[in-house]
Amino acid sequence: MSLFNLEDKVALITGSTKGIGKAIATRMAEQGAKVVISSRNQELCDEVAAEINGKGGTAIAISCNINYKEQLENLVSKTEQQLGKINALVCNAAINPYFGSSQEIPDSAFDKVMHANIGSVHRLCQLAIPGMAENGGGAVIIVSSIGGLKGSEALGAYAISKAADMQIARNLAVEWGPKNIRVNCIAPGLVRTDFARALWENPQIYEATVSKYPLRRIGEPDEIAGAAVFLASDAGSFTTGQTIVIDGGGTIAG
Predict the structure, then answer these.
(1) Are the CB atoms for 69 and 120 separated by under 8 Å?
(2) Calpha distance 56→91 (Å, rounded)
(3) In degrees rounded to 5, what are phi and psi of residue 63?
């Protein structure tokens, strides 16, 4: 059996109707996982779940706005009711409502970023990990960013939240390791997603970015998905508390 086999595993992926989240859900389903597609839009969730089911995978759709604890509670409880205990949790959903200097960011935007990007990860882990532990273990994968590793002139609050993701992974890896729970981060560089469109569609930003990437290009969502499959599967069974950087070499050369 392949080390990357996820057969009969239940994988809950937030922000999975497009971009990196959708790629992760699709690739996990290909490896046999029963996946939960989730975002704020139920119709989009249904469409992606139908797409995966149409290709022979197993997927259900549960909408959730990560800003509301009661919706996170509903997401976890419905997943467990319909598919069973969660084996892999992928915290991918995040927001970035402000692009500019930290000096100018409104308090409301700063608070939104912290509440959504840090608070939802913390709360979702609180809700899902105990069930994983009761079931013999599992994997949590937090999609962070290289923004959490570097200083930024325009992504200050977002970068702070992504650095916090890495510390959440380290804390929870220590706390839950004895229960066979592994917690890791993936830190992508610039990837061609709707979320990062303002960056890669801007010719000046794009050229400045790829000129510093040894591979001389930005990433594609599917190039992040493989790491998530690795971390959720037996292939990653001795990996915990880590941040895996997937950035075309940007952080080692830029």
Answers:
(1) no
(2) 25
(3) -70, 150
Question: Distance between CA 229 and CA 223 in Å, rounded?
Answer: 11
- CA–CA dist 158, 147 (Å, integer): 8
C-alpha to C-alpha distance for 64 and 76, rounded to whole angstroms: 10
Q: By the 8 A CB rule, do 16 and 48 touch?
A: yes
Given 98, 158, 206, 213, the catalytic residue: 158
pLDDT digits (tens, 9 = 90+) for 32-63: 999 999 999 999 999 999 999 999 999 999 99
Q: What is the CATH number of domain 10-193+220-246?
A: 3.40.50.720
68 given a catalytic annotation: no
Helix ranges (DSSP H) in 137-195 = 156-176
pLDDT tens profile 184-235: 999 999 998 887 777 777 888 888 888 989 999 999 999 999 999 999 999 9
